[in-house]
């Protein structure tokens, strides 16, 4: 079986990615599972730049396909923040409970129509010949008024989707994977991989 190395150490993310890509005959493993230990400096100004930086950093150590994502939360009231700094907001090792509470405090008293936000995800895939392709997914919603839900991770417990009347952390896994920013970007990438690799997948 062919494999893809996904440039992340986030075990929750690997589980989510394997769920979405499960109908491909390709094993998706983390950097740790692939035995690659490299510190990646994400100094890009956009999600796309950071995703490509991650892919290129890991491609140096393998001839396998390498994939990476960069994603984040854009809050309109905060002029798009935390954006590309979503993982580093309030400190990279700060628990998301604290990050989420900080954002709720920053939006205290802000009326509903001004709490619009979106999750953005860019997926990049790098190949042995040095070429890199990217896909993008977004999900629109708003910042809720409290932390709700246990199913997601990161900012999911404060990201409320009015259409479904719940946060992405309250959604069943299948629903979240279908409509999430990462789910959309991964599905598009899956089709691009199938086109690119033909009968390999």
Structural overview:
This protein is 29% helix and 24% strand. Helix 4 (173-179) packs across helix 5. The mean pLDDT is 92. It has a single domain (2-200), classed as Maf protein (Alpha-Beta Complex). It has helices at 11-20, 47-59, 96-106, 173-179, 181-197, and strands at 2-6, 26-30, 65-75, 116-126, 132-143, 159-161, 166-167. Strands 2-1-3-4-5-6-7 form a 7-stranded mixed beta sheet.
Q: How would you state the average pLDDT, rounded?
A: 92
Number of domains: 1
Shape: globular
Fraction in helix: 25-40%
Poorly predicted regions are: none
Descriptive labels:
alpha/beta; seven-stranded mixed beta sheet; single chain
Short characterization:
This protein is α/β, with parallel strands linked by helices and 201 residues long. It has helices spanning 11-20, 47-59, 96-106, 173-179, 181-197; strands at 2-6, 26-30, 65-75, 116-126, 132-143, 159-161, 166-167.
